[in-house]
Structures
1.
Amino acid sequence: MFDNYIKKENNFTYLEKGEGAPLVILHGIMGGLSNFDKVIDYFSNHYKVIMPVLPIYTFPLLKTSVKGFSKFLYDFFEHKNIDKAILLGNSLGGHIALYFANKNPEKVIAMILTGSSGLYEKSMGDSYPKRKNYDYIKQKAQEVFHNPKVATKELVDEVFEIVNNRMKVIRTLALAKSAIRHNMAKDLPNLKMPVCLIWGKDDKVTPPHVAEDFNRLLPDSDLYWIDQCGHAPMMEHPDYFVKLMSEWLTKRKL
């Protein structure tokens, strides 16, 4: 959809569309550019939307961690001469945003987190013993969403390929362990920038109590719920997600 806006420079592959204040989007472990189609389409009319492809399966194994990808994001900011930006992160992308904001608060104007890890993680690790079973992996992929139809055959095929690739499994597990190791509970009270939490009421990966904990621990946050919605609101209810995010950015004058 946005092939003309994808650039490759140095070790970075990223999408860039629009003009204005930078809005940097960070995807999750099994996520990608297409997860944010509606977000990119709408907000590129108001911001410079930039979405780096996180090299989850090609990064050096020793650097495949929340900390390692926070450093990757810092290097990307340097490469793009981004002084400060609004960060939007889903799942692992939210965790990377939180870690980055804690280390580099001067570079973060605000954050939008949706289904973010950082306080609680239920990984797909328990599915690996049955990784050869396509129907089981399909069921696991569907459980990420409230509406199982959102897990298209293309998405299920992608997950199936990942869990049956030994090196990708090793990296996925390394990231899952890293996410648990880098619990942000003690750091969240230090994050003074405004944070918008948009959460699916039926999220089974980072359940609703996780959003409530984020809201309680962050000094300046607003929490919005989406009914009949799982772990990826920007995929399952893209129009409503965009509406909530847009209204929050307007309210905060961002």
2.
Amino acid sequence: MDYNIIQEEQFKYIETRGGEETLLLLHGLFGALSNFEGILDHFGDSYNVVVPILPIFELPLRKVSVTGLVDYVADFVDYKGYDKINILGNSLGGHISLLYVLSHPHKVRTIILTGSSGLFESAMGTSFPKRGDYEFMKKKTESTFYDPKIATKELVDEVFDIVNDRNKAIRIIATAKSAVRHNLGDKLHRISAPALLVWGREDQITPAFVGEKFNELIENSELILLPKCGHAPMMEHPELFNQHLETFLEQVAAEVK
């Protein structure tokens, strides 16, 4: 299903307007709208599914950081007038979700994390390989998934183009360093919203033990480990991911009534 990208003020986003409850999806550093196709297609008619495009490559350099992106999300939520959102983040998007929940707890109904940074992550390190090394980037992109075939040529090309753009590469590195500095281990006990944690057992970037640690530190949380799955469960096992997410959201809704 194709979704139109809406542009208003400084915001670019997708919005399905399919239901009263808002499900806000936040992508990671190399994330694209295609990462969330399965969620959009499954929930788009029953929820107001919203995907803001994070301005990782557009923010002023001085604001390129995890907190700069959290400020952007906060401004977006206020601009749209959303209340009691269900916020879902993959990878860096999970980190941003956590920081948003910590600073705006009254705005959040639930939080869903999948392969989230915030405690530990092993990604690109602090530098990129020399430009033009397509095979290296292909292997790096494939290692994101349990099944390397998920890393289509289109996806690899997108990552390769980012790495070979000096301006984008600088911003990726700055954001990644900022994420490492913003470790949330001593803050997660403050989160009271119901939390669903969906992790791939074979995640090489935020390994399964990271999901287990989040589960330990976030009091009202449930952890689901998916077998034969890497860093992006919603892409590798979309039907299973959506089934767990739907059950979780329905249970929370039933408890609220």
